[in-house]
Amino acid sequence: MSVREKRLRNEHQALLELVGNAGGSIIITSATGNPPYQYVIDYRCRGIEKLKEKKPVFRSNHRVEISLSNQYPREQPSVKFLTPIFHPNVYSNKDVCLGSYWTMAETVPQLVIRIGKIIQYSKDVLNLNSPANSKAESWAAKNMSLFPVDSQTFKSQIIWGDIK
User: Fold this and answer.
1) Environment class of residue 87 by beta-carbon count within 10 Å: exposed (0-12), middle (13-18) or buried (19+)?
2) What order of strands is seen across the sheet that includes strand 55-67?
3) 119 with 43: CB under 8 angstroms?
4) Between the CA of residue 154 and those of 117, 158, 161, what are the distances in Å?
5) Which domains does the chain have, with CATH numbers?
């Protein structure tokens, strides 16, 4: 078994544990591969779908596809929303901007948590300095008092030793 395959197996197990502890707020809709290299994740939390007359239109169900290339973890995953979202860190084609620096230490479960925080406009992951969507950045900068848009919290990390 290759190092990549072992990591994918361990991260899949950790993701299953995270989902099991998420109280229905995170659901794995599909996993492709053995071990999985592509996931479709459903989030049950409040996020902003669009603006209507400069006011947010909220949605509570979000679907995201996470794809891990053959170069993962050296290369960052590809993350794309499959449902509408209005966010400074999401491009108009629904690709998520994960930043210009990827660290191999970030795991799939940690990424799943980060995406949940992005949906909620959590201030600890909101990046207005290098927006993927300038209209969303401009609106967000003027409405910081609204954030986060949901009180749902996501576990900030998985402790590998806790995995059975």
Assistant:
1) buried
2) 26-33, 36-52, 55-67, 78-81
3) yes
4) 7, 11, 19
5) 3-162 (3.10.110.10)
pTM confidence score: 0.92
Do the strands 78-81 and 55-67 form a parallel or antiparallel pair, or are they unpaired? antiparallel
C-alpha triplet 75, 80, 82: angle, nearest 5°:
160
Contact (Cβ atoms closer than 8 angstroms) between residue 93 and residue 124: no
> What confidence tens digit (pLDDT) does each residue in 65-104 have?
999 999 999 999 999 999 999 999 999 999 999 988 789 9
Is residue 66 within 8 Å of 39, Cβ to Cβ?
A: yes
Q: Are 49 and 62 in contact (CB under 8 A)?
A: no
Q: Helix (H, G, I), strand (E, B), or coil: what is residue 88?
A: coil
